[in-house]
Design goal:
With 380 residues, the protein is mostly helical. The protein has three domains: 2-51; 64-162, Tyrosine recombinase, N-terminal domain (DNA polymerase, domain 1, Orthogonal Bundle); 177-350, hpI Integrase, Chain A, CATH 1.10.443. It has helices at residues 33-51, 64-79, 82-100, 110-122, 127-146, 158-162, 177-190, 195-204, 208-213, 252-272, 289-303, 312-323, 328-335, 340-347, 356-360; strands spanning 2-7, 15-21, 24-31, 219-220, 225-228, 231-233, 236-238, 246-249, 281-282, 285-286. The protein has a three-stranded antiparallel β-sheet with strand order 1-2-3, with helices on one face. A three-stranded antiparallel β-sheet has the order 4-5-8. A two-stranded antiparallel ribbon has the order 6-7. The termini are far apart.
């Protein structure tokens, strides 16, 4: 650190203050010598206070906490699903703000970010959870970079260098055909009220929120398909996960099951004076996801089936279709995946080796199998 006063050019009577601090050099034209010396003394005093931690560095940038909350409320809440908003808010509050919240956003650099992520990983947090914290942090700082509050997003590339990236492969645990049949049999025998719901889940592969949002008007009885166009969770109706509507085919068995349920609902409508439009309702309103998850667990226990998630019914639907030799394109359309690549990435290992005979045909012993030109006939 250094602050000096110099006359420039010599003999001109004009004095400059030269500052050398933390690797940076600055020069400022002041004027008369006595004024330049006074300015130099004030600057030197300020630098000493700052180096001792007695003077807070001024910053025109908002604190990270303030900007993160603004990003969460104005962007995430508007653009993302409610569940995403809640998940991001939890990560910010629990993991990020206690460490970085009090810093101006332009003072958050790569070293501080690396320290935070390694600290989270060292606290027994999984790589997936650390990756989520990284994503949230990147979302805030990326937004700040877009608004030119900082020159660039310092989070980019950090997980790769730290080797903390989450696994890209998805581990799935579908039921076997026998387990699926057993589940539905036990459900029909002991939990008959819920049989139509689980029959629909196993025969369509619809997501849980899509099943709970299903209304009678979404079913095309003549065409034997269901229009999937919305999802329900925690009192909120939204679009599907991909924001695309799709048509899901109904099997004959499922169509018959849902017709019986519709007849029951119409009989109940006489007593209540109106028809409940929600197909799978509880007390004539949408069911919550955790409620039906508890029913699912009870049926698993009764059937003696290993512990699974209700989402594994969806995986079971896909695996059984592929096991039957159905096209991955058809499975993609039924599942509502955004691309065929997603279907193959998740379920490709379940596609049976139906083309194995193709390589066996290379072993053919027929004479013409390896000839590039036809044989010439003698005398012709």
């Amino acid at each position: 650190m250094g602050v000096k006063v110099k006359e420039k050019p010599p003999g001109s009577g004009v004095y400059y203050v030269y500052i050398h601090h933390e690797g940076e050099r600055r020069a400022k034209k002041i004027g008369p010598k006595d004024l330049a010396e006074e300015v130099a003394r004030q600057i030197e005093a300020q630098l000493i206070l700052k180096s001792c931690g007695l003077l807070k560095k001024e910053s025109g940038s908002p604190l990270f906490k303030e900007y993160a909350e603004l990003w969460l409320e104005s962007y995430v809440r508007t653009v993302c699903r409610a569940t995403t908003y809640e998940r991001y808010k939890t990560v910010l509050t629990k993991y990020i703000l206690p460490e970085l919240g009090a810093l101006p956003i332009d003072q958050i650099k790569k070293p501080a970010i690396k320290t935070l992520l390694l600290k989270l990983y060292g606290s027994s947090l999984s790589k997936s959870s650390v990756s989520l914290a990284r994503d949230v942090l990147s979302g805030v700082l990326g937004h700040a970079a877009d608004e030119e509050l900082i020159p660039a997003n310092p989070v980019i590339g950090i997980l790769k260098r730290l080797k903390l990236r989450r696994k890209t492969t998805l581990s799935i645990e579908p039921m076997t055909r026998e387990e699926a049949a057993c589940f539905l049999e036990v459900c029909h025998a002991h939990f008959r009220e819920w049989h139509p719901f689980f029959m629909t889940a196993f025969r369509t592969g619809m997501r849980l929120g899509e099943l709970l949002a299903l209304e009678w008007g979404d079913i095309d009885w003549r065409g034997k398909f269901i229009r999937v166009k919305k999802s329900y969770k925690r009192g909120v109706i939204t679009g599907t996960k991909t924001d695309r509507d799709r048509r899901v085919d109904m099997s004959d068995e499922l169509a018959a099951c849902l017709r019986d349920l519709l007849l029951t609902c119409k009989k109940e409508a006489v007593a209540f004076g109106s028809m409940c439009e929600v197909v799978f309702s509880r007390k004539r309103v949408h069911m919550e996801q955790n409620y039906i998850r508890r029913i699912f667990k009870r049926i698993l226990v009764k059937a003696g089936i290993r512990e699974l998630r209700i989402h594994d019914i969806r995986h079971t639907f896909a695996s059984l279709l592929l096991g039957n030799g159905e096209s991955p394109v058809y499975v993609k359309d039924q599942m509502g995946h955004s691309s065929i690549r997603m279907t193959v990435d998740i379920y490709g290992h379940l596609i049976p080796g139906s083309n194995r005979d193709a390589v066996n045909r290379l072993d053919s012993t027929q004479p013409n199998a390896t000839q590039t030109q036809p044989q010439k006939s003698n005398g012709l």
